[in-house]
């Protein structure tokens, strides 16, 4: 993205009803769509049920694979034809949400961000038809990533059709499980063992398919990973032009990788607005951002064009008032960092 620093949200909002989604959309558009330092996005309200949460919402998009909801979570059915009821509900709910976006954001000329689960978080979350995670099956996780790439292209085309005036679309892949996938940290179904580590070349390849599909659809591909050890260099190598992180989770290597991204003209989403506890004032967060840039030896005026200010993670666990305030803070801090 070009221009000054922007503020945005990671994606999720509190609530458990359609009315809560409508309110979240109002907050996003009110705080971010009408300001040059705001980046509007399609909100998520996972409290409405499994079909509205990250995994179910994304599986609703993946038309090439059928899935249903089990007590343990989402599972591929291994069948073709009509999708299961839970997957149809997830698709219907997302279509309803996009209908609301289309109506409320008509004429919006700024950028818009949409979020989907990444292939490795899905592989670590979704089960195979015969049990255990897709992560255990090389062929299954490959098939999932390729189906997700197709789904992302179709989804972005749908959003583009609904928002023809949007200046730019951003696709955010949510990959909170990726560091655990790379480090053999995902438990097996029994809970007594861990799945084998996925080697970086394979992880990069699967991510690359999805990120390339986003770029081919005319969107700027980003990845969000608020876990510790976010592999910024790997994500950029796979095609991510932006990486969103929790600043508190970065180690020395992470800080260096973030600096390299900014110097190369890519985007770093700086997660500095807390999602738990009391919210600080604008001044404290602005000073933290400036200190971070100074620590890395980066000129705020030059590096600022690649910065995006965000909450540290999703806002589903916040109160409605705090969620609104968090987005307001992100926008105001972005404006201040823009000079």
Number of spatially distinct domains: 2
End-to-end C-alpha gap: 18 Å
Q: Rg, please?
A: 19 Å
Please outline the major beta sheet.
8 strands, parallel
Uncertain stretches: none
> Total strand count, please?
10
- What's the pLDDT, averaged over the residues? 93
Task: Enumerate the strands of the largest sheet in spatial order, edge to edge or round the barrel.
Answer: 1-10-9-8-7-6-5-2
**Which overall shape is indicated by the principal axes computed on the Cα atoms?**
globular
Number of helices: 12
**Structural class assignment:** alpha/beta
Strand content: 5-15%
Roughly how much helix do the residues carry, as a percent range? 40-55%
Order of helices and strands, N to C?
A: EHEHEEHEHHEHHEHEHEHHEH
Q: Which descriptors would you attach to this protein?
A:
339 residues, alpha/beta, 2 domains, two-stranded antiparallel sheet, 12 helices
Overview of the structural elements:
The structure is a single chain. The chain is α/β, with parallel strands linked by helices and 339 residues long. It has two domains: 1-16 and 241-339, no CATH class; 49-240, no CATH class. Helix content is 44%, strand content 14%. It is built from twelve helices and ten strands. It has helices spanning 18-33, 54-59, 85-104, 119-123, 138-162, 178-182, 200-216, 232-237, 252-263, 282-295, 300-303, 320-337; strands at residues 6-7, 40-41, 67-70, 73-76, 112-117, 169-174, 219-224, 242-246, 267-273, 307-311. The strands form two sheets. It has an eight-stranded parallel sheet with strand order 1-10-9-8-7-6-5-2. A two-stranded antiparallel ribbon has the order 3-4. A hairpin with a 2-residue loop joins strand 3 (67-70) and strand 4. Helix 10 (282-295) crosses helix 12 (320-337). The longest helix is centred in the middle third of the chain and has 25 residues, at 138-162. The chain starts with 5 loop residues before the first strand and ends with a helix. The mean pLDDT is 93.
């Amino acid at each position: 993205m070009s221009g000054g620093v922007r503020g945005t949200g990671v994606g999720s909002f509190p609530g458990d009803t359609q009315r809560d989604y409508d309110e979240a959309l109002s907050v996003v558009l009110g705080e971010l769509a009408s300001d040059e330092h705001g980046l509007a996005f399609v909100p998520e309200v996972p409290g409405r049920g499994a079909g509205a949460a990250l995994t179910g919402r994304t599986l609703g998009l993946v038309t090439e694979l059928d899935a249903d909801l089990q007590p343990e979570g989402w599972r591929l059915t291994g069948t073709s034809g009509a999708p299961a009821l839970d997957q149809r509900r997830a698709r219907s709910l997302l279509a309803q949400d996009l209908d609301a976006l289309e109506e409320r954001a008509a004429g919006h000329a700024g950028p818009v961000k949409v979020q989907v689960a990444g292939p490795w978080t899905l592989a670590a979350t979704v089960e195979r038809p015969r049990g255990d995670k897709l992560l255990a099956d090389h062929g299954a996780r490959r098939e999932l990533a390729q189906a997700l790439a197709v789904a992302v292209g179709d989804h972005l085309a749908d959003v583009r059709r609904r928002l023809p005036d949007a200046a730019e679309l951003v696709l955010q892949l949510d990959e909170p499980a990726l560091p655990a996938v790379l480090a053999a940290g995902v438990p097996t179904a029994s809970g007594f063992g861990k799945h084998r580590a996925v080697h970086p070349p394979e992880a990069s390849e699967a991510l690359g398919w999805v990120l390339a599909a986003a770029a081919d659809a005319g969107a700027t591909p980003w990845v969000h990973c608020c876990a510790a050890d976010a592999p910024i260099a790997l994500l950029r190598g796979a095609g991510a032009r932006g990486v969103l992180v929790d600043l508190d989770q970065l180690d020395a290597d992470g800080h260096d990788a973030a600096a390299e991204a900014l110097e190369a003209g890519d985007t770093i989403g700086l997660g500095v607005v807390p999602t738990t506890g009391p919210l600080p004032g604008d001044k404290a967060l602005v000073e933290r951002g400036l200190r971070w840039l100074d620590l890395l030896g980066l000129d705020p005026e030059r590096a600022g064009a690649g910065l995006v200010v965000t909450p540290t993670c999703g806002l589903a666990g916040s109160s409605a008032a705090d969620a609104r305030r968090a987005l307001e803070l992100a926008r105001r801090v972005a404006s201040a960092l823009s000079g």
